[in-house]
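Feature request disguised as a bug: please show the residue count (569) next to AP-5 complex subunit zeta-1 in the output. Example input:
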Amino acid sequence: MSAEEGDWNFYLRTVSNSARDSNIANGPASDPSLLHAVKKLCEFCKREDKPSDDLVARVYPHLNKLFQRSVASLSQSNSSNGLLLLGILQFFLDFGEVVLHDADPSLHTFIRSCLSREFADPIVAAATLDFLYVNKNKLLISFPNLLPQFFPLILKLTAWNGGKLEKPFLKVLPGLVSPGSFLPLFPSLMDLPILVVALEKVERSSGSLVGNNIASIQKSKAPEMLLALMDEAYTGTTVGERGGDESEESSTINVADPLFLELLKDENDGLVERHWTSPGIAAVLQAAKNSPQSERLKQILNIAPRLLDAYFAIALRDANSSLICALIPILMTRISALFPDQNYMYKVRRRLLEFMLAAFHRSPDLIPLLKKPIIDRLGNAYDSTEKTELALQLCWAVGEYGGGGPTHKDAARELFESLELLLYENLSSSRLGLRQESAVDSNRKSFSKSSQSRLLCFVITAITKLATHHRELLPRARVALIKVARSLISDSRVSKRAHVYLGLIDEPSICWPVLGPSRPSHGFVHYPGTVNWNEGGNKMVAHIPFYILGEQEGPPFHDFSLSDVLPRR
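Example output, currently without the count:
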């Protein structure tokens, strides 16, 4: 017998003895040599030039029994079973076809019974992500619904273990995205900071998360303690002050608060509305804002925006227009409902707006489909700074893409009317955002005037661009621009821009290349800001508006003649 055969028999005997052990209290994971034996047996089965079906067939029954015994001992074992089960699962994936073993039930059992208890163990978490990445192609082909189904648990182990798992998670993230998980994954990524806060509260109240199944939290004392702590932050009363005979009236937060059960779940249950105005979430946000941030929370606040970057890149590359169309209204709602950290809110809002504009650039037809939420957001431009910024970006998109293009005239007209209303509301008022009071300080007034001027510039630009795309709107656009030009606005930049646009719309051959679409139209490509002078000889109907060149006023500053500009015949 060779040394290699001796090693093979030794490792097989080690696994066989452990598989036959009937003592549940003494779990397999308590034997440190067992994991090494499992890995060695897998290596032996792979080492042959052609995998030996005989070796695989001899190993499989023992590993299958060992897997079942490990799962049965999870609730009573003090040792981590995660690494051992991952080693056995690797064998099932590699040689399942040889031994006719369907790995799907085993994978579900591991995730629900083991990973849900050991996700907080950094070694198990890192090994799990590595296992998912190494077997990503096999899982996506043979079990395409597995990763999308359990993405909340994978997010949970990533959020809890922090920056060490960012890169491994990014490698796995594309496998989490499917038609059924695309929309629910977005709010889950957005709420990673609040998930960390909730897990930290559970840990402080019930001890280490390793070995505790958070999925069954409603059956344990952990949620009662978690919600009691939130109640304390919300009402100012401590658990001890309430006493044992607490009435329903004095209990501000229900133990079965659906928001926190939603945050702490392990499986994808579809898109669930998250009520950010509920007492529970308000309490947690207020407590998080007023207390020092933990190191784990600081890490996830830095990581979450980068995870959103990866998610949006996948969305623009792989998601169809229907999913993007369903995502954008959720994005519009969440732009004002974020974890209260200034740096985090700035980073996330910037990414949300950039993705929204990128989605409209990829599919301008989304604009008429999303006409109602766009009009609603334009109407809410006064509510807060972030809603004002959202309205500005929507104004730009509506104008840039002509309300969806020349085939969407009804939607363009309704969007135009909404922009008109927003314009006239601003012209008839001296405020933007919250109502200005007489006692408002000068800095606040200055900021408000600057914001109003910026909004007006965006709105009149969008109105002019829409009228350029849809010529039937030109008379109404001209009336709106004349009102702006004649209005008593303190910021001269607004009225000056209105004058410029009035001059442009009187020169169709100049206005179309400057304010027209940047996408191909009728076989021609137009580049905004570039005038096609070759058409000047037959399309010019009046003088060339030289004021658009450097916005110079008065006599022309040039020393060339029209023959130098227009092509000679």
